[in-house]
Each structure stands twice: as C-alpha cells, then as structure tokens.
Design goal:
The chain is mainly alpha-helical. The protein contains 3 helices and 2 strands; from the N terminus they run ββααα. A two-stranded antiparallel ribbon has the order 1-2.
Length: 91
C-alpha cells in the first residue's frame, strides 16, 4: 500500500489537513477498537503474552495505514493504556 503522506507537527500530532485524513483516522480507530476487543479477555492486561500480541496487532494496523514509524511506538503505548483503563473500568 502506498504511503499516505502523513506529516508530523512539532507537537507530535498527525496532520494532513483534509477530510480524507479524518476518514483514515476513523478507519484506524475502528480497527484498533475491534482488535482490542478481539484480543482481550479476562485480566488480559496482566498477561504479557496477550499484551505482546495486542502490541503487534496495533502496530500492523498503523503500518497498513501508513502511520509514521517514528510516532508508532508512542501511539501503541497510548492505545494499550486506553485499553487497560477501559478494561479496569469494566472489571
């Protein structure tokens, strides 16, 4: 898949300045939520093997959509933190 021409602002935010960018972000968010739901289970955040599997799945989604590799590490951490917070809330 061709690069999506993402650019990083100094704040670390991803921007592209078009409606297409919002659509791509929505698609990525939807895929991330689905991945977290599919890979999570009871107390998943306590099991390192499940957390590792989820990190890989999130990384693949970001790569597939041309997310900048230099920003992906922080994005993956953010997604997992958010997933953990939601999981703790529902437990």
């Amino acid at each position: 898949m061709a690069s999506r021409n993402w650019s990083a602002r100094s704040s670390g935010a991803i921007s592209r300045g078009s409606a297409h960018c919002c659509l791509i972000r929505r698609i990525i968010a939807t895929e991330l939520v689905q991945t977290v739901r599919n890979n999570s289970g009871t107390d998943w955040w306590r099991r390192e093997n499940v957390r590792a599997k989820m990190r890989v799945a999130v990384k693949k989604i970001l790569q597939r959509h041309g997310y900048p590799p230099d920003l992906a590490k922080d994005a993956i951490k953010t997604v997992l933190r958010q997933a953990e917070a939601l999981a703790a809330e529902f437990s």
